[in-house]
Each structure stands twice: as C-alpha cells, then as structure tokens.
Write a structure and sequence with these properties.
220 residues; mainly alpha; 11 helices; 0% strand; elongated; binds zinc ion
C-alpha cells in the first residue's frame, strides 16, 4: 500500500503524468500493494511500473542533454538505444523497450486472478474503473471470502454453494447464482465484461451494505 501510495503521490506531483496520477489516485482505495494487483492497477491507469517509468525518463534526459550515461552496462533496467540516434528516434526506442519489459513483467503473473481479467500489460479497460470493477479485480470489498478474512463474517462460504468460498473468482466465474449473462472469458477490455461485473458486484454490495452505501451516479 505504501509503495503504491508513493507511486501515486509522485505521479500526481508530476505535470506530465497528472491525469494518469489522478486515475491512480481514484484506484487507491481499492488496491493494496499485492504485486499482481499493483501491476493491474498500473495497467488500468495506463502507467508502467515506477522503476521502468523513471528509468525510461532518465535515459531520455541523459541522451537529450548529452550527459555521459551510466546505464549502458548489463543489468540495466532498460537497454539504452544507440546514442547516435536523433532525439525522437531515441525516445521511440526507449518507449518500445519499456512496453516490452512491462509486458514481460506482467506476463510472469499469469496465475493471478487480476491478470485473468487484465490479460495484457497494455490493456485499456472498456469502462472507467469504479468501485465495482475495482472490487472484482482485487477480490476485496463485498465478497464473503474477504469479509470473513477481515473478521466481518463468521464464514467465507458462498450463500448458494456448499463448501465453496465466495471469492471474486467463484462469484464471477463459477457460482450458479450469477450464471445469467455470464461470459466465457472475463476481460476488462470488453464492455460486456465490465457490465456483467458491475451488475454482480453491485448486487452483492447492496445485499451487504444497503442501497444508500453507493453514491447516486453509480447506483444506475
Ligand atoms: Zn456459489
């Protein structure tokens, strides 16, 4: 959480990424510093992991100013393109390797639940991330498995299925209670997925917290 907070804080203070930083800020309450979720949060906000962002910016500045580079050796976060390239070409090459590395890091988290819903490191969600899609992605909030984990419920068991914990994955992928309109694959780049998730999570949330717990624009 702390790492994510500083990431967001730094980005919010930067003019260049102000908009992206604000998107991250809006996600803050839904996400914790679990790696998979952290990456998914970055993807949804259109931001690469901070380490890559900072390194790519350093490379560009060093090249533009003609400073000697300390980043050409092995073990560098991103490979430095040839210094003889023109400014724009150089920046393009840096961005290209940033995207490649970002996708590679993201791919390593294939088994994460959040990764199933955001399959590509360069994904753009079809709908603005809100408290519903955010909860589905993190598995936090209204799901009984989470509520049990934080001591709010005596059992994590699904209300319909015996011996099954109601995780986000169970509710959205398996549970017969929510099979109406269920999609074969959940992908936040797909509007149908966003609508399905919003409907299910909203129902679960209202069942637990009452309709007044959701602000007016999100109730529809
Ligand atoms: Zn169930």
């Amino acid at each position: 959480m702390l790492a994510l907070y500083f990431h967001i804080k730094q980005l919010r203070e930067s003019e260049v990424d102000r908009e992206a930083g604000q998107k991250m800020h809006s996600l803050r309450q839904s996400f914790v510093s679990h790696n998979g979720i952290y990456y998914a949060a970055g993807v949804l906000a259109g931001l690469a992991p901070l380490k890559l962002e900072l390194h790519s910016r350093s490379l560009k500045v060093i090249h533009r100013k003609g400073w000697p580079s300390m980043y050409n050796g092995k073990g560098s976060v991103l490979p430095a393109p040839p210094r003889t390239l023109a400014k724009e070409e150089y920046a393009k090459e840096v961005d290209k390797s940033l995207r490649k590395k970002w996708q590679h890091l993201y791919d390593k988290r294939r088994s994460d639940w959040s990764r199933k819903m955001v399959p590509k490191g360069t994904a753009k969600p079809a709908m603005e991330v809100n408290i519903f899609t955010g909860q589905a992605l993190t598995g936090h909030g209204c799901f009984r498995a989470y509520r049990h984990k934080i001591g709010k419920l005596p059992s994590a068991e699904c209300a319909s299925c015996e011996q099954m914990d109601e995780t986000a994955e169970h509710a959205l992928v398996e549970c017969p209670r929510f099979k109406t309109g269920r999609l074969k694959e959940l992908n936040l780049e797909n509007m149908e997925t966003c609508r399905y998730i919003k409907r299910i999570v909203k129902d679960l949330w209202i069942a637990e917290n009452g309709p007044k717990s959701i602000r007016e624009p999100l109730r529809k």
